[in-house]
Design a protein that fits this description.
7-stranded mixed sheet, 15 strands
Protein backbone atom coordinates (compact mmCIF):
# COMPACT_ATOMS: atom_id res chain seq x y z
CA UNK A 1 0.00 0.00 0.00
CA UNK A 2 1.35 3.40 -0.98
CA UNK A 3 2.10 5.81 1.86
CA UNK A 4 0.68 9.30 1.42
CA UNK A 5 3.15 11.88 2.74
CA UNK A 6 1.18 14.71 4.32
CA UNK A 7 2.58 18.04 5.51
CA UNK A 8 0.69 19.27 8.58
CA UNK A 9 0.92 22.77 10.03
CA UNK A 10 0.39 23.56 13.67
CA UNK A 11 -0.25 27.29 13.29
CA UNK A 12 0.36 28.96 16.63
CA UNK A 13 -0.57 32.60 17.09
CA UNK A 14 1.21 35.11 19.26
CA UNK A 15 -1.30 34.51 22.07
CA UNK A 16 -0.52 30.76 22.08
CA UNK A 17 -3.79 29.67 20.49
CA UNK A 18 -3.72 27.15 17.64
CA UNK A 19 -5.62 27.35 14.35
CA UNK A 20 -7.71 24.29 13.50
CA UNK A 21 -9.99 23.73 10.51
CA UNK A 22 -12.97 21.48 9.79
CA UNK A 23 -12.82 19.12 6.83
CA UNK A 24 -15.61 19.45 4.22
CA UNK A 25 -18.24 16.76 4.69
CA UNK A 26 -17.65 15.08 1.31
CA UNK A 27 -13.95 14.34 1.98
CA UNK A 28 -12.36 11.37 3.76
CA UNK A 29 -12.82 12.01 7.52
CA UNK A 30 -15.26 14.73 6.54
CA UNK A 31 -16.79 16.85 9.29
CA UNK A 32 -13.88 16.30 11.68
CA UNK A 33 -11.51 19.02 12.83
CA UNK A 34 -7.83 18.85 11.96
CA UNK A 35 -4.57 20.70 11.80
CA UNK A 36 -4.47 22.04 8.23
CA UNK A 37 -2.13 20.78 5.54
CA UNK A 38 -2.04 18.45 2.58
CA UNK A 39 -0.16 16.03 0.40
CA UNK A 40 3.51 16.64 -0.34
CA UNK A 41 4.04 16.52 -4.10
CA UNK A 42 6.88 14.39 -5.58
CA UNK A 43 10.18 16.26 -5.24
CA UNK A 44 8.62 18.96 -3.06
CA UNK A 45 10.20 19.98 0.25
CA UNK A 46 7.93 19.53 3.25
CA UNK A 47 8.29 23.17 4.25
CA UNK A 48 7.35 24.29 0.73
CA UNK A 49 4.29 22.02 0.85
CA UNK A 50 3.26 23.56 4.18
CA UNK A 51 3.39 27.10 2.82
CA UNK A 52 1.55 26.12 -0.39
CA UNK A 53 -1.20 24.10 1.31
CA UNK A 54 -1.97 26.72 3.94
CA UNK A 55 -2.15 29.42 1.29
CA UNK A 56 -4.55 27.25 -0.77
CA UNK A 57 -6.74 26.23 2.18
CA UNK A 58 -6.81 29.37 4.32
CA UNK A 59 -5.35 32.19 2.24
CA UNK A 60 -2.59 33.05 4.72
CA UNK A 61 1.18 32.77 4.78
CA UNK A 62 2.94 30.69 7.40
CA UNK A 63 6.60 30.40 8.34
CA UNK A 64 7.71 26.88 9.33
CA UNK A 65 9.71 27.05 12.57
CA UNK A 66 10.63 23.48 13.55
CA UNK A 67 9.50 19.86 13.16
CA UNK A 68 7.19 18.67 15.94
CA UNK A 69 6.37 14.99 15.38
CA UNK A 70 6.05 12.46 12.55
CA UNK A 71 3.05 10.10 12.67
CA UNK A 72 2.63 7.00 10.47
CA UNK A 73 -1.00 5.84 10.55
CA UNK A 74 -3.08 3.21 8.76
CA UNK A 75 -6.68 3.99 7.90
CA UNK A 76 -8.85 1.34 6.18
CA UNK A 77 -7.58 1.31 2.61
CA UNK A 78 -4.94 4.01 3.00
CA UNK A 79 -1.71 4.70 4.83
CA UNK A 80 -0.56 8.19 5.71
CA UNK A 81 2.53 9.72 7.26
CA UNK A 82 1.87 13.05 8.89
CA UNK A 83 4.94 15.30 8.89
CA UNK A 84 3.96 17.85 11.54
CA UNK A 85 5.65 21.24 11.90
CA UNK A 86 5.17 24.18 14.22
CA UNK A 87 4.54 27.32 12.16
CA UNK A 88 3.82 30.99 12.71
CA UNK A 89 1.27 33.03 10.73
CA UNK A 90 2.34 36.18 8.96
CA UNK A 91 1.13 39.27 10.86
CA UNK A 92 -1.86 41.16 9.53
CA UNK A 93 -3.43 38.33 7.53
CA UNK A 94 -6.88 36.92 8.30
CA UNK A 95 -7.66 33.28 7.48
CA UNK A 96 -10.46 32.50 5.03
CA UNK A 97 -12.35 29.23 4.57
CA UNK A 98 -11.22 28.57 0.98
CA UNK A 99 -10.81 24.77 0.96
CA UNK A 100 -12.03 24.09 4.50
CA UNK A 101 -15.56 24.12 5.91
CA UNK A 102 -14.61 26.51 8.73
CA UNK A 103 -11.71 27.46 10.95
CA UNK A 104 -11.13 28.80 14.46
CA UNK A 105 -8.42 29.66 16.97
CA UNK A 106 -8.41 27.36 20.02
CA UNK A 107 -6.29 27.28 23.20
CA UNK A 108 -4.16 24.14 23.37
CA UNK A 109 -5.95 23.09 26.55
CA UNK A 110 -9.28 23.22 24.70
CA UNK A 111 -8.32 21.00 21.75
CA UNK A 112 -9.64 17.84 23.42
CA UNK A 113 -13.20 19.17 23.06
CA UNK A 114 -13.03 18.83 19.26
CA UNK A 115 -13.41 15.60 17.26
CA UNK A 116 -10.18 14.97 15.33
CA UNK A 117 -9.19 12.12 13.00
CA UNK A 118 -7.46 9.36 14.96
CA UNK A 119 -4.11 10.17 13.35
CA UNK A 120 -4.20 13.66 14.89
CA UNK A 121 -4.38 12.47 18.51
CA UNK A 122 -0.57 12.54 19.08
CA UNK A 123 -0.48 16.16 17.87
CA UNK A 124 -3.04 17.15 20.49
CA UNK A 125 -0.95 15.33 23.11
CA UNK A 126 2.21 17.16 22.05
CA UNK A 127 0.55 20.57 22.16
CA UNK A 128 -0.60 20.07 25.75
CA UNK A 129 2.89 19.16 27.01
CA UNK A 130 5.66 21.66 27.88
CA UNK A 131 9.27 21.61 26.67
CA UNK A 132 10.70 20.82 30.12
CA UNK A 133 9.97 17.73 32.23
CA UNK A 134 11.70 18.04 35.60
CA UNK A 135 12.46 14.99 37.74
CA UNK A 136 12.78 15.43 41.49
CA UNK A 137 16.04 14.44 43.20
CA UNK A 138 15.49 11.05 44.84
CA UNK A 139 16.96 11.85 48.25
CA UNK A 140 16.76 15.61 48.83
CA UNK A 141 15.38 16.70 52.19
CA UNK A 142 11.64 17.45 52.01
CA UNK A 143 11.67 21.13 53.02
CA UNK A 144 14.56 21.88 50.65
CA UNK A 145 12.78 20.07 47.83
CA UNK A 146 9.57 22.05 48.32
CA UNK A 147 11.53 25.31 48.23
CA UNK A 148 13.21 24.18 45.02
CA UNK A 149 9.81 23.18 43.61
CA UNK A 150 8.33 26.60 44.41
CA UNK A 151 11.17 28.37 42.60
CA UNK A 152 10.80 26.13 39.56
CA UNK A 153 7.02 26.58 39.42
CA UNK A 154 7.44 30.34 39.66
CA UNK A 155 9.79 30.20 36.66
CA UNK A 156 7.17 28.41 34.56
CA UNK A 157 7.80 24.70 35.19
CA UNK A 158 4.60 22.87 34.21
CA UNK A 159 5.39 19.14 34.39
CA UNK A 160 7.06 17.27 37.27
CA UNK A 161 8.01 13.64 37.81
CA UNK A 162 7.95 12.77 41.52
CA UNK A 163 10.76 10.29 42.10
CA UNK A 164 11.72 9.60 45.70
CA UNK A 165 13.90 6.97 47.36
CA UNK A 166 11.62 6.87 50.43
CA UNK A 167 7.84 7.24 50.08
CA UNK A 168 6.32 10.15 52.00
CA UNK A 169 2.58 10.56 51.42
CA UNK A 170 2.36 13.92 53.20
CA UNK A 171 5.26 15.40 51.22
CA UNK A 172 3.82 14.10 47.96
CA UNK A 173 0.40 15.54 48.78
CA UNK A 174 1.91 18.95 49.48
CA UNK A 175 3.90 18.84 46.23
CA UNK A 176 0.74 18.01 44.27
CA UNK A 177 -1.12 20.87 45.94
CA UNK A 178 1.61 23.34 45.04
CA UNK A 179 1.82 22.09 41.45
CA UNK A 180 -1.93 22.37 40.94
CA UNK A 181 -2.01 25.85 42.47
CA UNK A 182 0.58 26.88 39.85
CA UNK A 183 -1.24 25.16 36.96
CA UNK A 184 1.39 22.42 36.72
CA UNK A 185 0.97 18.63 36.59
CA UNK A 186 2.76 16.00 38.67
CA UNK A 187 3.34 12.35 37.75
CA UNK A 188 4.34 9.73 40.30
CA UNK A 189 7.26 7.47 39.43
CA UNK A 190 5.78 4.24 40.76
CA UNK A 191 2.66 2.16 40.40
CA UNK A 192 -0.59 3.38 38.84
CA UNK A 193 -2.49 2.76 42.08
CA UNK A 194 -0.09 5.02 43.97
CA UNK A 195 -0.74 7.82 41.48
CA UNK A 196 -4.52 7.42 41.83
CA UNK A 197 -4.41 7.32 45.62
CA UNK A 198 -2.25 10.43 45.86
CA UNK A 199 -4.44 12.47 43.50
CA UNK A 200 -1.57 12.93 41.05
CA UNK A 201 -2.04 13.71 37.37
CA UNK A 202 -0.63 10.38 36.21
CA UNK A 203 2.14 7.84 36.45
CA UNK A 204 5.66 7.58 35.13
CA UNK A 205 6.53 3.94 34.41
CA UNK A 206 10.06 2.67 34.84
CA UNK A 207 11.25 0.49 31.96
CA UNK A 208 10.87 -2.59 34.20
CA UNK A 209 7.26 -1.72 35.06
CA UNK A 210 6.58 -0.92 31.40
CA UNK A 211 7.73 -4.40 30.40
CA UNK A 212 5.33 -5.95 32.91
CA UNK A 213 2.22 -4.33 31.39
CA UNK A 214 0.14 -5.29 28.37
CA UNK A 215 -2.47 -2.50 28.49
CA UNK A 216 -2.82 1.15 29.48
CA UNK A 217 -2.84 1.26 33.29
CA UNK A 218 -4.80 4.51 33.78
CA UNK A 219 -7.86 6.16 32.19
CA UNK A 220 -7.54 8.72 29.42
CA UNK A 221 -7.94 11.69 31.77
CA UNK A 222 -4.66 10.79 33.53
CA UNK A 223 -1.21 10.88 31.96
CA UNK A 224 0.89 7.77 31.37
CA UNK A 225 4.61 8.28 30.71
CA UNK A 226 7.38 5.71 30.37
CA UNK A 227 11.16 5.44 30.50
CA UNK A 228 12.66 3.92 27.35
CA UNK A 229 16.21 3.04 26.34
CA UNK A 230 15.87 1.21 23.02
CA UNK A 231 13.42 0.66 20.12
CA UNK A 232 11.86 -2.39 21.80
CA UNK A 233 10.85 -0.32 24.81
CA UNK A 234 9.51 2.39 22.51
CA UNK A 235 7.29 -0.27 20.92
CA UNK A 236 6.15 -1.40 24.36
CA UNK A 237 5.22 2.18 25.23
CA UNK A 238 2.97 2.26 22.17
CA UNK A 239 1.46 -1.04 23.25
CA UNK A 240 0.28 0.44 26.55
CA UNK A 241 -0.81 3.69 24.85
CA UNK A 242 1.62 5.88 26.77
CA UNK A 243 0.98 9.59 26.31
CA UNK A 244 4.70 10.35 26.09
CA UNK A 245 8.10 8.82 26.84
CA UNK A 246 11.59 9.81 27.88
CA UNK A 247 14.44 8.28 25.89
CA UNK A 248 17.87 8.03 27.48
CA UNK A 249 20.74 8.49 27.90
CA UNK A 250 21.47 11.01 25.18
CA UNK A 251 24.73 12.12 26.84
CA UNK A 252 26.98 10.37 29.31
CA UNK A 253 25.92 10.92 32.92
CA UNK A 254 27.83 10.69 36.23
CA UNK A 255 25.07 8.47 37.69
CA UNK A 256 25.45 5.83 34.94
CA UNK A 257 29.04 6.10 33.67
CA UNK A 258 28.96 2.53 32.34
CA UNK A 259 26.04 3.18 29.98
CA UNK A 260 26.84 4.04 26.39
CA UNK A 261 25.12 7.32 25.44
CA UNK A 262 22.87 7.43 22.39
CA UNK A 263 24.05 10.74 20.99
CA UNK A 264 21.72 13.00 19.03
CA UNK A 265 22.03 11.12 15.74
CA UNK A 266 20.77 7.82 17.15
CA UNK A 267 18.16 9.57 19.30
CA UNK A 268 16.75 11.30 16.23
CA UNK A 269 16.83 8.09 14.19
CA UNK A 270 14.95 6.08 16.82
CA UNK A 271 12.14 8.63 17.23
CA UNK A 272 11.87 9.58 13.54
CA UNK A 273 8.57 7.73 13.08
CA UNK A 274 7.56 7.31 16.73
CA UNK A 275 4.03 8.73 17.05
CA UNK A 276 4.26 10.02 20.61
CA UNK A 277 6.01 13.01 22.19
CA UNK A 278 9.54 12.12 23.35
CA UNK A 279 11.69 13.91 25.92
CA UNK A 280 15.46 13.62 25.72
CA UNK A 281 17.02 12.53 29.01
CA UNK A 282 20.61 12.06 30.16
CA UNK A 283 22.98 14.94 30.84
CA UNK A 284 20.40 17.49 29.68
CA UNK A 285 20.61 21.17 30.47
CA UNK A 286 18.91 24.27 29.12
CA UNK A 287 21.57 24.61 26.39
CA UNK A 288 20.49 21.24 24.96
CA UNK A 289 16.91 22.32 24.30
CA UNK A 290 17.41 23.77 20.77
CA UNK A 291 19.16 20.61 19.59
CA UNK A 292 16.49 18.42 21.15
CA UNK A 293 13.69 20.34 19.42
CA UNK A 294 15.52 20.17 16.09
CA UNK A 295 15.65 16.37 16.51
CA UNK A 296 11.81 16.27 16.86
CA UNK A 297 11.92 15.83 20.62
CA UNK A 298 9.10 17.30 22.67
CA UNK A 299 11.80 18.82 24.84
CA UNK A 300 14.25 17.82 27.55
CA UNK A 301 13.92 15.99 30.86
CA UNK A 302 16.33 15.94 33.74
CA UNK A 303 17.14 16.24 37.42
CA UNK A 304 20.17 18.47 38.00
CA UNK A 305 19.95 20.38 34.73
CA UNK A 306 16.33 21.57 35.07
CA UNK A 307 15.96 22.56 38.71
Amino acid sequence: METIHVAVAVIRGGDGRVLISRRPDHLHQGGLWEFPGGKVEPGEAVTDALVREIREELGITVAPRRPLIRIPFDYPGRRVELDVWLTEPAPGETPRAIEVAEWRWVPAAGLSAYPFPAANAPIVRALTLPERYAITPADERGDALLMRLDRALASGLALVQWRRATPDAALLGEAIRRCHAAGARLLVNGGPDAARTAGADGVHLTSARLRSLDARPLPADMLVAASCHDPDELDRALGVDADFVVLSPVHATPSHPETRPLGWHRFEDWIAAFPRPVYALGGMGADDLPEALAARAQGIAGIRGLW
